[in-house]
Amino acid sequence: MVSPMQPPTDALAPPHLLNWSSVARTRWQRLIEQARALYHHPERQQTVGRGKSLGLLFFNPSLRTRTSLEVAAARLGAQVSTLQPGRGTWDMSWAQGAVMDGAAAEHVEDAIAVLGQYYDALGVRLFASGTDLEADRTDARMQQIAQASPVPIINLESAWYHPCQALADAATITDHFDGSPAGRRVVVTWAYHPKALPMAVPNSALLAAARLGCEVTVARPASHALHASVMEEARQSAAHHGATVRETSDLGAAMEGAEIVYAKSWGGLQRYTDPAREAAQREAHRDWIISSERMARTRNGQFMHCLPVRRNVVVEDAVLDGPASLHLRQAGYRLSAQQALLHELWTP
Ligand code: CP
C-alpha cells in the first residue's frame, strides 16, 4: 500500500508512525523539506489522497492537531472523519482478558480492527496516564493500538511522543535558519504551569532539535529533569552531528546566547510516586516564566511553544506578541508538515 514510515524494528506489520526514533534521517529530512515547500508554496499540493480515508480518534482534547489534520487530508483529496471515543461512540475497555461487565461496551482492540477495515490510516491521540511510569514510558496503549491495527497508525500525541508536532517544530527551526539548523543554539526550557502536564512535547522537541544537530540545552529545575532514557537518546543523536546536549537548572545562564527558546511545561517524574511532592516542587518555581528580560539575554533568540499556552504564566504577553516569537509560524507548520506526512503515506 505505502512505503514504510517506520522500519520493522518493532515487528508491527503496517508502517506506523509512533515516533521518529527509528525513522531514517534521510526520510525525516525529506519530510522537513517537503513541509517547507508546502508551507511556502501551498499551491504545489497534489491530490494523492483521492479515494483514501483517514479516521481520527481523539481520546483527549485538541485544537491544532485535529483541525490541521482534517484540513491536510481534505487538501489531498481524502475523506476524513473524527471520533471522540466515549462521546458518540462506545466507552472502551483496554485490559487484556477483561470481564466487561462495567461501563465499557467495546474493547479497544475490536474497535481498531473494525475501523481498520473502513479507513486507510488512523490517527490517534492518547495522553499519558500520569500514574504508571512504565506504561507511559513504553507508550503501552499506543503500542496496543498499533498491534491491533491492520492500517498505519499516526501518533497524534501519546504518553511519550508527539511526532507530528516534532516535524512541524523541526521545519520551523530549519526555516528560521534558512535550511541550516546544525550547530545553532536551542534551549528547551521548562516553564511553570498549574498542572503536571505530560512529557510528550518536551521529549519530542528535544529529540527533534538534537536530530537537527543543534547545540541543545535543557533548562529545568532539578526536580523536573526529563527521563534519563530520553536525555541519552538526544545526546547520542546530537553526537551524530558533532553537537551536544546539556542540562542545567540555571535558566538565566541557559538564555545567554540562545537562538531558539522552546518553552514547555511538564510534570516532574516525581508525580508517578509522590504527586503532592511534585506539585509542591512545581509551585516553588512559579518564577520560571519567559519574560522580555530573559529574552534580552539571548542572541536575537526566537520564542517557540507548541500551544496552547497560558499567557503570563508560561510566557509574558510582550514576548508572545512581540517580533521575537515563532509560535504562529510553528502552528502554521502543523498543517504543511502533516500534508507532507500524508502525501508520503499515500504516494504510490
Ligand atoms: N500543539 C498541539 O498539539 O495542539 P493541540 O493540543 O491543540 O492539538
Outline the structure in words.
- By secondary structure, the chain is α/β, with parallel strands linked by helices.
- Helices cover 38% and strands 13% of the residues.
- It has two domains: 25-161 and 333-346, 3-Layer(aba) Sandwich (Rossmann fold), CATH 3.40.50.1370; 165-331, Rossmann fold (3-Layer(aba) Sandwich).
- The chain has helices at residues 25-40, 64-75, 108-118, 133-137, 140-148, 163-176, 200-211, 228-239, 251-255, 275-283, 292-295, 317-320, 327-346; strands at 53-58, 79-83, 92-93, 106-107, 121-125, 153-155, 185-190, 215-219, 245-248, 260-264, 302-304.
- Helix 1 packs across helix 13 (327-346), helix 2 (64-75) packs across helix 13 and helix 6 (163-176) crosses helix 7 (200-211).
- The protein starts with 24 loop residues before the first helix and ends with a helix.
- The site of phosphoric acid mono(formamide)ester has 9 residues, from helix 2.
In short:
The chain is globular. The chain has two domains: 25-161 and 333-346, Aspartate/ornithine carbamoyltransferase (Rossmann fold, 3-Layer(aba) Sandwich); 165-331, 3-Layer(aba) Sandwich (Rossmann fold). It is built from 13 helices and eleven strands.
Describe the secondary-structure layout.
Elements: H1 25-40, E1 53-58, H2 64-75, E2 79-83, E3 92-93, E4 106-107, H3 108-118, E5 121-125, H4 133-137, H5 140-148, E6 153-155, H6 163-176, E7 185-190, H7 200-211, E8 215-219, H8 228-239, E9 245-248, H9 251-255, E10 260-264, H10 275-283, H11 292-295, E11 302-304, H12 317-320, H13 327-346
Parallel strand pairs: 1-2, 1-5, 3-4, 5-6, 7-8, 7-10, 8-9, 10-11
The structure holds phosphoric acid mono(formamide)ester (CP).
